[in-house]
Each structure stands twice: as C-alpha cells, then as structure tokens.
C-alpha cells in the first residue's frame, strides 16, 4: 500500500527505505491498535523457533548425561572383565604366547 502510494516498487521500498517502512508499520500499529500481519507471522515463527531451540538444548543435555552414564558403565564392565581374567584358572594345555621385543 505504501509502495503503491509512493509509486515505488515494493522491494525497493523495503530495502532502500527501511525508515519509511518502519514509520508506516508504526502508524498502522498506532492507528488501528493492531499488529501488522507480517509481524504476527514473524513473532509466531520466532516463538516456534525458541521452543525448538529449548527442546534441542534439553535433548542435548539428556544425551550428554546418557553418554556419561554409558562411559561409566563401560569402565566398570572393563574393570570387572580384567579382574575376572586375572582370576581365571590357567589350563594345563594352554601355553601363554610371548610378545616379541623387537
């Protein structure tokens, strides 16, 4: 509407005359006591994105806690396995292999 009244292409108005665009939307807001539709859509989008970010942060934190628990469980199992291997009886027919020192 403003671009048509000024006989200016809409994109030219939005890119080159941001001050006029802002003034126009401010007038619309004040005179009609309403928020312009593009602003409503942007606010809705921002709200959705903020929720998405919050959900992703919570998921990342849960995954970090799970990684910590799994790493601890792995360490415990490895330690128990090593202890069992040390206590395992050696069979008479098993000859331990020697590691080469070269």
TrEMBL record:
Alphabetized, the UniProt keywords read: Coiled coil
As recorded in UniProt, coiled-coil segments are 39-73
What taxonomic classification does the UniProt entry list for its organism? Answer: Bacteria, Bacillati, Actinomycetota, Actinomycetes, Kitasatosporales
Using the UniProt annotation, give all residue ranges assigned to the region (Disordered): 78-102
Name assigned to this protein: Transposase
Domain of life of the native organism: Bacteria
């Amino acid at each position: 509407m403003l671009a048509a009244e000024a006989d200016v292409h809409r994109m030219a108005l939005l890119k080159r005359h941001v001050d006029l665009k802002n003034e126009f939307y401010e007038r619309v807001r004040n005179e009609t006591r309403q928020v312009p539709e593009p602003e409503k859509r942007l606010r809705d989008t921002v709200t959705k994105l903020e929720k998405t970010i919050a959900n992703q942060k919570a998921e990342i934190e849960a995954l970090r806690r799970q990684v910590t628990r799994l790493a601890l469980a792995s360490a415990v199992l490895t330690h128990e396995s090593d202890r069992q291997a040390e206590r395992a009886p050696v069979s008479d027919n098993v000859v331990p292999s020697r590691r080469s020192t070269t």
